[in-house]
Design a protein that fits this description.
The protein is α+β, with helices and mostly antiparallel strands. It has a single domain, classed as Glutaredoxin (3-Layer(aba) Sandwich), CATH 3.40.30. 42% of the residues lie in helices and 16% in strands. Helix 1 links the parallel strand 1 and strand 2. The longest helix has 12 residues. It is globular and about 45 Å long. The chain starts with 8 loop residues before the first strand and ends with a helix. 26% of the residues are buried.
Length: 129
């Protein structure tokens, strides 16, 4: 018999070395979700995939303003519109607030356990348990 959530899957974009990415993977593994992990060092995020996150969350929500790459690039002193932010995110994935997680049409950026918990107990999972 398959595990309760075996037909449920999430896509996690992140870095193997990133603590928040590892926490997301652990969160979904504990709940027996199938996980499709994309290590952004090996395979950069596709522009269309990034657009999905931007459309739902906004470009600024994807920008890691606390990270070293943000400080090193001097972005705190620049005024960028969404197009400029997206260009920077595509050019340097270290600027992304990781992990980026997609569950069906739902998306999140950064460590968002509250959001993930709502997904795992929401209507998409009700009939699968």
């Amino acid at each position: 018999m398959p595990s309760p959530a075996s037909s449920l899957s999430v896509q996690v974009f992140g870095l193997d070395s990133d603590q928040a990415t590892r926490a997301a993977i652990r969160f979904f593994k504990e709940r027996r979700f199938a996980i499709h992990q994309v290590d952004l060092r090996r395979k950069p995020i596709a522009p269309g995939e990034l657009r999905r996150f931007v459309d739902r969350l906004g470009a600024r929500a994807l920008l890691d303003t606390e990270g070293r790459a943000y400080r090193d690039a001097g972005l705190g002193y620049m005024r960028l519109d969404d197009t400029g932010i997206v260009e920077r995110l595509l050019a340097d994935p270290r600027l992304l607030r990781l992990p980026l997680v997609r569950f069906g049409n739902e998306v999140s950026a950064g460590k968002a356990e509250g959001t993930w918990k709502s997904w795992t107990s929401g209507p998409m999972t009700e009939g699968k348990r």
